[in-house]
Amino acid sequence: MTKMGVEAHKSHPAARALEQALQMKNGGLTPDEVCVAACLYDAPLRLSDPGALVDLPWFSHQADKPLYPASVVKLFFLNALAAFREEGRLAYHDEDERAAREMMAISSNEATVYLVGRLTGADDGAPLEGEALAQWCAAREQVQQWYDSQNRSEFAGIRVLHGTYQDSPYGRAKQIRTGNNGNLLTALSAATLMHDIARGARPQADWMMKLMEREFQRGQSNLDPDGDQVTGFLTDGIPAEYKVWSKAGHTSWTRHDLVYAERPDGKSFILCVMSEGEWPAADKSFLPAFARLFCDYAFTEHNTLK
């Protein structure tokens, strides 16, 4: 596995972009508050299969540090939905399709909570006690157990247990998070899943890619802030001529984005940037600046560190 750190590989486009974007924040954001995973490709990843991300030259800055993923976790539920249907664990239903579209397009929390219930059979509801709560919690862990069963080192340390909420879970959904038992992802796990989907190594990969297309939101000025996955995120800083597929997320304490992008000449990249803290969560300039710098450095010198 090729694992690169900022200090050891300062010439990498992601390292240079990170260093300069942090300098622009004048100390408001520190390296410890940011996690990055990135990989560059000489051809469209959608049209080739170079193998697993960790077997390629890729860049890491704290990429294995687990963080609360906000809405980036929705891609993991989408992937589980595709796989469960492919495996015959869950029958197709039009309502699942509608929920999946809304979950990815406008990051609907309601759609996510619905799909978590569909995937696990453990719907949100009133508080439970004793054996009833234990059985419900065991059912709710099915998606997590499915990811664990893949035995991928890239998914080490992740937790995919619950839906996303506007303010807070209630009832039994709150009970399962007692003891800080909330969702966790790493930049590496998110970049790995995007890499696998883009290269067609996951069931219904084309369907998932279509749901992540971000063109319908780019260049728009009247987007609902709750569903806007462009303004203040990586896609905001990626040149307009690039095609972009993405899943962003933020809370009062986090701001993340995960993108796959292609240039007109076919060169492409995956970039996941996760930031944690009250200041980076509120800031809408760091991720776009990082993306602009990354694109400038990556494709003027296209350094894949082979």
TrEMBL record:
Coiled coil: none annotated. GO terms for biological process: beta-lactam antibiotic catabolic process; response to antibiotic. Its EC number is 3.5.2.6. It holds the Pfam family Beta-lactamase2. It comes from Pseudochrobactrum asaccharolyticum. Residues 99-274 form the Beta-lactamase class A catalytic domain. This is beta-lactamase. Belongs to the class-A beta-lactamase family. It is an enzyme of class 3 (hydrolase). It catalyses: a beta-lactam + H2O = a substituted beta-amino acid. One of its GO terms (molecular function) is beta-lactamase activity.
